Protein 1
Amino acid sequence: MLIRKPRHEPASSEITPEAVWQSRREWMARAAMAAAAAGLPAWASRSAFAQSGAELPGRPNPAYSVMDKPTEWKDVTTYNNYYEFGVDKDEPAKYADKLQTRPWTVSVEGEVLRPQTFDIDTLLKLAPLEDRVYRLRCVEGWSMVIPWVGYSLSTLLKQVEPTGNAKYVEFTTVEQRENMPGLRYPVLEWPYVEALRLDEAMHPLALLVFGLYGKVLPNQNGAPMRLAVPWKYGFKSAKSIVRIRLVERQPTSSWMQAAANEYGFYANVNPDVPHPRWSQATERRIGEGGFFTPKRKTLLFNGYADQVASLYQGMDLAANY
Ligand SMILES: Nc1nc2c(c(=O)[nH]1)N[C@H]1C(S)=C(S)[C@@H](COP(=O)(O)O)O[C@H]1N2
Ligand SMILES: [Mo]
């Protein structure tokens, strides 16, 4: 099996002192309250797990969190890429209330000894939920900082016992024809498919996400369950997953299918490897000032190099973009 232990523990600079963490927790609580005051729906608490906006706290994991100021709830939930609901940033928030997130099952199959179909409410309880603040860098040149709630994808993969033939993990996302207006347009080959190499999928930073800001994931952010792979461009973090398949050969993702020369399998954030039509050297942090605010420099592996660079030792990152 191709499971490698990360060579480095998180660098001490990545570890958040408890006091700072506490003040950040307070900051987040304030932001959540502000969001509530700004009109989070009152039905939010009625049907606990199923409704976006219901409480879903996770235990803070400072070792796997960045110190950047989290992007505001409003921006995180209204500036989205979820092409099944339309290609404009405001369309997912407008139309995703139609998405049916219950009942919901996720089948985990392929090169595994114990294939299983999990109910979403079973998955929610499979491991203690953690609160981890990650950077998200979109290939389009913007970034956000999001306090996700979830647990490592490896926890789920270990449950099904990958065989020695498993080298890649493929994620298929939901296709609800009547509820997803974007599916009428052949922008991508539907359903949306993404994939990781098995050792990437087993890396503890690869997060199975059920919530954000201590609340159940809003539909537009990929309810009821999505990925967050913080060292890769955002498109690798598939939303609303219904099937996980362990396979021997490298799968073709929807984005590779659409334009293989623009969207590679690896999609590791890399300021030195431009997209064929634009530079990837800088990014605009959503919510940070206006048009004239200087852009930020994009970091190799989105700033997670200490943790993940060892996965790619000896690989040509320009050829394997
Ligand atoms: N099913 C699905 N997953 C998806 C996408 C999509 O269009 N469909 N867009 C991707 C892209 S390009 C990005 S940047 C992130 C955005 O996640 P967010 O809206 O929660 O910030 O979701 C990714 N996952
Ligand atoms: Mo993206």
Protein 2
Amino acid sequence: MSVHRGHGAHPSTAVLTRGFDPRLSVGSARPAVFRSSTYVFASPEAAERAFNLVSGRATPEAGEVPDLIYSRFNHPNAEILEDQMVPLEEGAEWSIVFNSGMAAIMTTALALLHPGDALVYTVPLYGGTQNLIHDLLEPLGIVCRPVVAGRSAELDEAIRTTPNIKAILIETPANPTMVMTDIKRASLTASHLDPRPVVMVDNTFLGPAFQHPITLGADIILYSATKYLGGFSDLLAGIVLGVSPEINKKIRARRGLFGNILQPDECWILDGRLPTVALRMNRQSKNAQRIAESLVHRHEIRKVYYPTLFDDPDQIRVRLSQCDYPGAMISIDLHGGKAAAFEFLRNIRLAHNAVSLGGMETLVCHPATTTHSGCSAEEKDIAGITDGLVRISVGVEDWRDLLRDFEQALERVAVTVSEK
Ligand SMILES: *Cc1c(COP(=O)(O)O)cnc(C)c1O
């Protein structure tokens, strides 16, 4: 199914010109949706060969394209999407699509880690990933060691001294305070070990437009494609990208076993979103920067968390060295704690009070009682999640309307909280 027209072109060209051959879809300019669970073989010999290839008992000859068998293993819309995603992630050689970000992360972890192995990871992590570690990986006998995001020397130390370390999981910027972890430094430290642990980066917040972890030495990129890649808050999906053919094989084998491949309709929808992800993210980042830099002077706000407003010199260095643009996530810490945060949420008019992020519409949430409600007081303290913290995912609306909306909500907060 896949063709490689557009190989070598820039990402914005390649995403529109590779991976899809109209001749295989009766000439249609956009791919058809292949809603079939199973595929017809040309002969019993072809069926036998296809099973030998998918099970790994045989390897394809040069130029041989394995026949499709059954949609839990592979299907045309997954192949097209996977091929078109690759050029968006600089340095990636392959991608694998899943039916959620969590499915992508879980399947990758279970493909690479076995009882007795160790994982070093940055905190805070996305809540679901944190639960995966505590509720599944640790009970399986995988040793999981946290390091606070942004503490480069501590991360180096953990990588060097954790016995049987097989993988490192970095989420940067960290949610919700945008603390950044130096991907290049961690990858370099990993390279001094033999065998080298696999460096995995959850790139959901800034990728694929603004942060390119493979060029910084990472091996595997994880996405919740539910967020910026999907972009419209209307589907769940996950993508893993990487370079090593062995890792590709291992993760695909697990996906075939678990049955968590992304379904054809969702593949088709997501596929149509890829050519605009950089356009959307650029607009969202510009909007967010204008808003963050305007809110910084408001007396109702104790602190605005946004990459261009970092004051720590090392954080500024990491941002400048690994992010092209600051992105569209802002957190604001309000004076007046939970009451002020809730009053702010009650009074916003254009933005919606919802979790998730990366969509066209602006979403605002209160991490302490929602996305991070499962964290202990100590974990919240380390992650900077106060009762007054509100997280904003900025969309593509006009930034001036959004700013006016936030300002009027802040004025309501000032009135209500001072009345109490
Ligand atoms: C949303 C999210 C996930 C989980 O993705 P789902 O698509 O919801 O399963 C993982 N990591 C990060 C950083 C996320 O924001």
Protein 3
Amino acid sequence: MSGFNTRSIHVGSEPDPVTGAVNPPVYLTSTYAQDGVGVPRFSDYSRVDNPTRAALESCLANLEEARYGVAFASGLAGEDALLRTLSPGDHVILGNDAYGGTYRLLTRVFGEWGVTVSCVDLSDVAAVEAGFSETAKMLWVETPSNPLLNVVSITDLAVVAHAHDALLVVDNTFATPFLQRPLTLGADVVVHSTTKYVGGHSDVIGGFVATNNDELATKLKFHQYAIGAVPGPLDCYLLIRGLKTLGIRMERHCSNARAVAAYLVEHPAVDKVYFPGLAHHPGHDIAKTQMSDFGGMVSFTVKSGVDVARKICESTSIFTLAESLGGVESLIELPSAMTHASTVGSTLEPPASLIRLSVGIEDIEDLIEDLAQALEL
Ligand SMILES: *Cc1c(COP(=O)(O)O)cnc(C)c1O
């Protein structure tokens, strides 16, 4: 197998056989001419299959070292398609720091339908073990997690899940396959919000599910066309384009985040810095074994509390105050009032004064200077 960057650029993107165009055309078509009744040349309909979508699926599946990859219109649409393989009465065990949208989908949509959900501290393997029930079908893990960047051992959790005949699902949105490939560590399914680092330019919403499990892949493909939350060809094109620079962008995201974390640790106004690359981070040793670098997200709290944290978020000029993450541009936000507002009062609630940074790929001196002036408050 050739290297990550070679594959991210070439898999699924062969020059067009007719014209030699180095970028295959974007197939803006809803249907396909048939050579006879019921004999389509490619597919019968673009909800079922589309060449641009197929190119994205083959490339990202390859990068995740998966035999199968299925693209969806958003990360949550992919999660929905996966969760629909469950039946009423089934139980899902979720990390207590999971993405709020995953928690909402499980409790408010699948909960209504009869799926039960419990949240556990995934860093405590004994607690995860104790959280299993007869009806548990999935253990759902995010590592690093959002917004506290906890890191847990995929290998250890795979052993626990498999001992109970449950699937280990890993949301690999934060790490991306450049830093971590969960299927090679024992996970059964990988889910992605490709909206984030895979797209990388804050201009597209997308989702992806990858697996090596034949039976599950068949169900996911069925849900993709039977339910229909498919990405359009232009969205797929943007994601293919994003994948070509994923490796080089991640290298810069990681080095910038490391420098930002080192700066914040020394700052007198800063209380606690959450970044898996710091030696004192509780998940640092696990991160070193299962990831090739520590990612581009950094969270921190300030000593003077939530009002000052709010002002800091409103005082940067290069870091844009916005939700989401993973784009080339740096973003800043206050999870307790923004991305994680819906978790306030639950076990998933982040510290009120926690600030989350999605560190972009701008020049590091400019990013540090921007944080320095905002922290002077
Ligand atoms: C954004 C996000 C999702 C949801 O993806 P959408 O593309 O917004 O539907 C799921 N998991 C994580 C970790 C995310 O950051």
